[in-house]
Input
Amino acid sequence: MAQYAAMRSIGAYVPKKVLSNSDLEKMVDTTDEWIIKRTGIKERHIAAKHESTSDMGAKAASLAIERSGIAKEDIDLVLCATVTPDYFNMPSTACIISKKLDITNVQAFDISAACSGFVYLLSIAKAFIESGMKKNILIIGAEKFSSIVDYTDRATCILFGDGAGAAIISATSDKKESIVDIHASADGTYADFLVTPAPGSVNPANQKMLDEKLNFVQMKGNETFKLAVKTLTQDVIEILESNNLQASDIPHFVPHQANYRIIKAVGDSLGMTKEQVVLTVDKYGNTSAASIPMAINDIYESGRLKEGDLMLLDTFGGGLTWASALLPFAGKTK
Ligand code: ACO
Output
């Protein structure tokens, strides 16, 4: 019998500490008004010093497991998307999260696709399940972006926040519950739009890295903005067309939460109403791979998401990478 992949649950973790725009006004030459006008961000949450990406990922994952009703022992793959792993080389953050959750002796690995990480993971989980290799997959998007942000650079430090989101993707024989479609792509031509130059094989960790602040994120903001609007819009048009759907058929459009102006431009050009578009960028900022699952968790916790509701995910990030996904929420809702 054919085996399909269904999203059974969602969970998220938001660190306690809030970094508001007025806090940033005291750190760099910026204003609350400028940040809100250019990005829509009012505040973002920042992990505590002792709190790692895996700590946040494990908390989000715990909630996703609990809400799925699936026993921990039945999880057969753990995947984590992050560009701010606990350790830059090894072990993977997925291995550390597995250990923290006491899910050992199952395959676990990380992927790096920046803000597109969670939707990339969905495509991997779908393939593993449809091929019959796995039955219950824990996917996690977790970021401690504050660990790679230069808090003296006003062009980047206002944008990013920390957090984590997770979901359980399980096998089902019921096609109605299954992930409908995923489109994912990349173009390394634009690799220098978003980059942390060190540490890595190009620039191994050394004094130069520290002197030149190569360990912090660098971004071509304006160029990224333009390409984001174009790609995010095109992505949605293509996935809707190839599934014979209209924008009006989608109750929940969940775009990557990078900038309100990007989300508004994409939503408007697709004719989406305010009610369709999920917005969390004002309170969390850009949390990279955690942004999409944190946004889904928001509509889950507010009771807006109902069982079987169709979601359209749309994301874009460093690489450059981009991806969209159409899927119903196949878990129990509030
Ligand atoms: N406060 C005040 N002024 C600022 C600030 C700030 N925080 N940051 C920049 N400025 C200034 C600039 O210096 C510039 O001044 P100038 O005109 O005197 O030179 C002016 O504001 C305009 O700067 P721009 O960079 O052109 O501003 P823009 O409108 O493009 O907004 C922003 C900048 C918010 C970064 C925008 O370009 C953006 O959101 N880009 C996309 C980022 C993104 O989506 N990333 C997604 C992927 S993230 C990932 O994958 C991890």
About this structure: The first strand starts at residue 4 and ends at 13. Residues 170 and 250 are 23 Å apart (CA to CA).
